[in-house]
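re: the backbone from monday

yeah here it is again, tokenized this time
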């Protein structure tokens, strides 16, 4: 496992994708701070040419609780796309770059390789969520958000991390799709389908029973008219995560690699 982890970290370090994911979360964090800046003073925002209609994203308040809530919503929505691309790349690259047979020829169990890839994906995604939090704290302090307290910070930190963990669990099936499709295309197709269905199912009021809608409901992104996810929703998220890991490991262990 130690050697497999080292190899996966080395692949990620020499790729451009980590910088792309950091850039994506940087843009999202700056946008969130811009929303808070607009809400602080709408007349100032109009004078600067900024759109005050962005206020509807955070319920109309410019303070630390609203900022943390917006960061959690960024992880819930953007995280599915960014985290999903991380997982798809980690598993699909071996097929797209024709290194799968070389990898499987090494004296390392296939399930160990799968475990190393999922471990790197989880650490990568958690690091992105932590980076977003730090960026949000820095920018929020710069614009002088009000309402800071230790309790607010602890609650906001817990909400963002819990959303990140749920999102990481929900992207594990995309690893199976990328493996089964032997490349990126099937994984990306599964990602797009999940995101689309999450919006539709949440819109009709059954989001708490659809795992990919649960993080958004947890952060309150769907609005006050939607019920928060209950125990069933969280259990479904855990089930999806466990199923994604198990099916991917089983496929890698038993599939023939003939090219």
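seq for it, each position gets an aa:
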């Amino acid at each position: 496992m130690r050697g497999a982890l080292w190899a996966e970290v080395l692949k990620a370090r020499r790729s451009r994708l980590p910088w792309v994911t950091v850039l994506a979360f940087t843009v999202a964090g700056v946008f969130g701070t811009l929303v808070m800046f607009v809400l602080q003073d709408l007349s100032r925002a109009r004078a600067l040419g900024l759109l005050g209609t962005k206020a509807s994203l955070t319920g109309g308040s410019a303070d630390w609780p609203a900022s943390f809530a917006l960061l959690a919503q960024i992880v819930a929505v953007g995280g599915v796309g960014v985290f999903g691309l991380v997982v798809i790349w980690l598993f699909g690259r071996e097929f797209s770059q024709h290194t799968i047979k070389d990898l499987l020829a090494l004296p390392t169990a296939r399930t160990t390789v799968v475990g190393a890839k999922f471990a790197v994906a989880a650490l990568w995604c958690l690091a992105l969520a932590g980076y977003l939090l730090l960026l949000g704290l820095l920018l929020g302090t710069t614009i002088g958000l009000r309402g800071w307290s230790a309790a607010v910070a602890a609650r906001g930190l817990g909400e963002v991390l819990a959303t990140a963990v749920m999102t990481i669990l929900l992207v594990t099936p995309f690893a199976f799709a990328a493996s089964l499709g032997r490349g990126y295309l099937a994984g990306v197709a599964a990602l797009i389908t999940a995101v689309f269905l999450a919006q539709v199912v949440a819109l009709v009021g059954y989001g708490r029973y659809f795992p990919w809608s649960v993080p958004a409901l947890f952060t309150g992104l769907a609005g006050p008219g939607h019920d928060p996810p209950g125990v069933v929703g969280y259990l479904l998220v855990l089930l999806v995560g466990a199923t994604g890991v198990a099916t991917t490991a089983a496929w890698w262990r038993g599939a023939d690699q003939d090219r």
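Residues 52-59 have pLDDT under 50 and may be disordered. The chain has eleven helices and no strands.
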